[in-house]
TrEMBL record:
Protein's name in the database: Formate dehydrogenase accessory sulfurtransferase FdhD
SUPFAM superfamilies for this protein: Cytidine deaminase-like (SSF53927)
Native organism: Variovorax ureilyticus
Gene3D superfamilies: 3.10.20.10, Cytidine Deaminase, domain 2 (3.40.140.10)
Pfam name, any one: FdhD-NarQ
């Protein structure tokens, strides 16, 4: 398979600014370096994404895949990002069929930074077929701990979301983090991971996939996870009603409020192999 040519136009993830605290003391702190990136497909302006710019080419590729504007990474010839003009130029091999019609209706999502998705995102979700993935409670705890110790922009600057792709090791309780991305919105982070997956040789990405996000599980996040062949999604936040409905419809396991040894499985509990003895003693109810 001929993969697209990508530039490597990474941008600084943070910048330093002067602050004044509650005591009147001045100091310097780091904040996320949000910037706009306008995407052009075959010289046609498509959308402007607000992003940190960690992996802009993968973000653009994953965005096109998750919006179902392209079927495969190989549909794209090249993605060129130029931060001086804040643009990403996408060149496809054969154009995008009915692009004007398919991008005419935009929906503003609940994602941070008000992400936009096109109206066809919900179409065809009934045809999604997820792998027969099972995860043990021990693997869930290992995943959460891996995220806890991960060095991140959030720890140094805050105000960003993080997403990660894990694979489950066969015959054991281990998990392996394959890709970790932070951005101003969780929708950008998951799109970047979709782009990363599309650029990997199939034999290099073995094992059952589990997706983690720091943000809430909305319908957009559930659909995009399912499109990436992910059957289990974990979040440290909660889930929306539509996110729950979609997860139930496609048979996806949605786990939220996952911190330390606590979690709530909102949907697809059959995919989670419970080991309640690992959870420790129950906390007494508040008086």
């Amino acid at each position: 398979m001929n993969l697209p040519r990508l530039t490597k136009a990474r941008a600084p993830l943070t910048r330093e600014v002067e602050i004044v605290d509650e005591h009147g003391d001045r100091g310097i702190v780091s904040i996320p370096a949000e910037r706009d990136l306008t995407v052009y497909v075959d010289q046609r302006e498509l959308v402007t994404l607000m992003t940190l710019g960690a992996e802009p080419e993968l973000l653009v590729l994953g965005y096109l895949l998750n919006q179902r504007l392209i079927e495969l990474a190989a549909d794209v010839e090249s993605i060129t990002v130029d931060w001086e003009v804040g643009g990403a130029a996408v060149r496809t091999h054969a154009g995008i069929d009915r692009i004007e019609e398919r991008t005419a209706r935009k929906v503003v999502t609940t994602g941070c930074g008000q992400g936009s998705v096109f109206g066809e995102l919900m179409a065809g979700i009934e045809r999604l077929r997820l792998p027969d993935t099972r995860m043990t409670q021990a693997q869930l705890y290992a995943l959460v701990n891996t995220i806890r110790v991960q060095e991140s922009t959030y720890k140094s600057a805050g105000s960003v979301h993080g997403c990660a792709l894990f694979t489950l090791e066969e015959g054991g309780e281990a998990v392996r983090m394959r890709c970790f991305i932070e951005d101003v919105g969780r929708h950008n982070a998951i799109d970047t991971i979709a782009g990363w997956i599309a650029m990997q040789p199939a034999q290099e990405l073995g094992g059952a996939r589990v997706f983690y996000t720091t943000g809430r599980l909305t319908s957009e996040m559930i659909i995009k996870s399912a499109q990436m062949g992910v059957a289990i999604v974990v979040s440290r936040s909660g889930i929306t009603q539509m996110g729950h409905d979609v997860a139930t419809r496609v048979g996806l396991c949605a786990i939220g409020r996952a911190t330390n040894r606590r979690f709530l499985c909102f949907a697809g509990a059959g995919r989670l192999v419970l080991q309640p003895e690992l959870a420790g003693s129950r906390q007494p109810a508040a008086a």
